[in-house]
Amino acid sequence: MSVQSIRPQLTEQDIHRLIKGETPEDRATVAHRLCRRIALDVLSDAERAYAQEIMAILAKDAADLVRRTLSVTLRNSPILPRDIAIQLAQDVEAVAIPVLQDSPVFTDEDLIELVLSLTASKQAAIANRDGLSVTLTEVISEHGAVEAVRALSANEGAEYTDRAFEHSIRRFGSDEGVQKGLISREYIPTHIAEKMVSLVSGQLFDLLVNRHELPAQLAIDLASGARERATIDLVEQAGRTHDLPRFVSQLHLNGRLTHSLIMRALCCGQMPFVEHSLAELSGVGHQRVWLMIHDAGPLGLQAVFDRAGMPRKMLPAFRAAVNVFHETSHDGGPNDRARFRARMIERVLTQFQAIPKEDLDYLLEKLDYYSEMAAMDDVESSVGAA
């Protein structure tokens, strides 16, 4: 597209309507046509300069509708000049928000300055951007209005640090929107989860304690009923902990490392927890316990089972579950952990049915849970493929 090729697309009447159109609608229509061409065509330096002149005219138009047309049409375009983008960002919200949320021409320094000077809605638009840097996330969490921090907490593309989490909790820890956004994140640090336990209630509390790792003693206290309506699952917590030996040791010290808990964990495929639990109860090192379970035949498993004080009546079910674990593999797909655990439970229940009622009820509930997770992932994959 050349300067000459832009101009023939606009008749003399178009140019008149663009500059002096009687109605904002007339000027916005022409602006949309031209901005679409600017966004989609490859421009030479001369063409770019001409396009920038037109964009500067549109950015100064008296009508919000025309300026918004410029902002919306070029919101994702790298051709929008940075100075015009900053000008639009300081315009009324209807004009500013599209570029604040999507324009790639802003630098982090630009966005930080804008966060410190703009309204809550504009801050929220910045907080909704894809891929927020650590610095920008910290600035929004420390200086942004609650609306912006809500948006930030729900943005998985925001790079959170401990400092950003701390600012969010300190300033707006009682805000349900911020609570929900943080709890719904894929990961929050253990010490942040611990602080949030005292801030949330109801469904958010249940989601917090069953989605994120908690300090071992707190998890045990909650599971022991130290807090009303706690529904924490120690098997799930074991799978999240980053210090499994300490978690198992705390369970043992608190009398919570029960035979039933170990068996439930095994049936759900939580083998590292089982190994560390038998090591804790038997006084045998973890590496040796691993060999006795996985590489020493049936007598090795029986020996560590007995030394750990596990009841002999559980040994057949335990051995069957270990065999199922060895025979079942991860498929390598998204969320394969849920499918693996569902298959584990199905096969254990099929091969060995003499399971205590409470444990059976637990396993059936977990089977439903893991199957639902796997099904949801299949649906999302199908939608993505379509």
From TrEMBL:
InterPro entries membership: DUF2336 (IPR019285), UCP035865 (IPR014598)
Identification of the protein by name: DUF2336 domain-containing protein
Organism: Hyphomonas atlantica
